[in-house]
Design brief:
Length: 476
Amino acid sequence: MASALATSDTPVHSSNLANFNPCQHTFVATRTKQEHHDQNSQREIVPRVCRLRARDNSMAIYALVDPIDTNRLASDVSVNLLVEQLSEVSFDDESYKEKINDIMQKIFYEIENRLLQMTFDQAEEKISTTPSSGSEPEKLLPSLDEAESGAFLFAATVTQSYVYIGYVGTIRAFLVSNNNGELSISNSRPQYYHKGSLHTIDNDDECRRLKNLDVDLEKIKNEGLDRKSSKFTRCVGKLSEKLLSSAASANDVNEARCNPLICEPTVYKFKIFPGDYALVLMTDKLYQMYLKTSISEQDIPSDFLDLLRDSLNSPDCAEHILSKIEKRYHAQNNPTHDDIDIQDMGLLIHFFLQPKTTNVQSSMQTMQNHSRRICNGEVTVDEVRKFINKHKEMQERREKDRSTSRNFGHIRENQKHNNTIEPFVRFDTYEKLLNDNDDLRQANALITELLYTQSTSMLEEKLDDFLKTHPSLKCD
């Protein structure tokens, strides 16, 4: 969990956002689902999409975020924080090539950190306003939107030479190549639609990871990992399940990093070849609807290319393709079918900017989006600015609360353990270890003191100073 709780080293200044506009070579289309939240309100479920490109074309941020359920909080935080962090990457020298993958990986962890902070904020507020009987972790966490919300995220940072990929979950991606007018989706280029690339139990590598966590794969296949029998095995958010299923209490976040739903992104980079024509992202629900149109999974790439060719003369190729797949589905399925489960869908198609010297037929030139339409679910620069300001205010409020706590002091609880509960830590062994190691005993006292007297931002600095004077100790 240490890596997940680390603060991102990417500076954030919302002024950089002014350099970003919607990319003119990218098309997006989404579908919205309305679900009853309670008797008096409905919740709108829609994928979040990003297609922001820097004015100087130094980089672009393309992303598709698929909410797992009716709560969009995790997907909203994901897409906004992604833009906030990546918009600050500097291209002043070549060092960015070695940093972007690390930055993208840290962003996924930072998203979880942000959701964790928001969860604790709401938990503290709820505990202070409700009877103690209702604040038990197993009852409290599922009642918080911040803890229940979850999402899948696929992000691509595109520079003039490389594409940097980071994803978690089940969003599909195709890389379309163009060889003198012949379009193809070739396995010789990176593809992310095969079962082996998705974070599900159909992925052999993922099954091995789950076995190492002592997860019962047969039980997952029959019952799923969550209450809705979902077979996905990695996601952003869903803290209520991650924390409660793997830790002694809601605040024991260290154990959550060993949960099967761990947010551990797959990261990858590849060089843009002259023949690379388009990057396509689609949500799993769109892919599943595609499968229900009597087209086998192995034939989807070739069929999608037919749809793409047909859409090149339309004003919006993403909307054209999504509508075509929808019409096929409804023509082949009666209205009583389970189409209610696949209403919220998303599709993003980005056409690469190629040098004028590239040998490409005129009918296959880079597509240009002349429409200024912002589709439902699309993130804008103004939204990201508001997101930054809102969370800056929230952090200032947290720091103010900590300062108040320091001034008035915390009530330190004496922990008592009885033999009726099997603890996660053998406290007798732990206490003996402290008694036998003076440096470790001092470190324990220091950390305890810091937790009660210092703000979170000061913990790492103080601990680093202590470790420098105690070389026998090492912090992982």
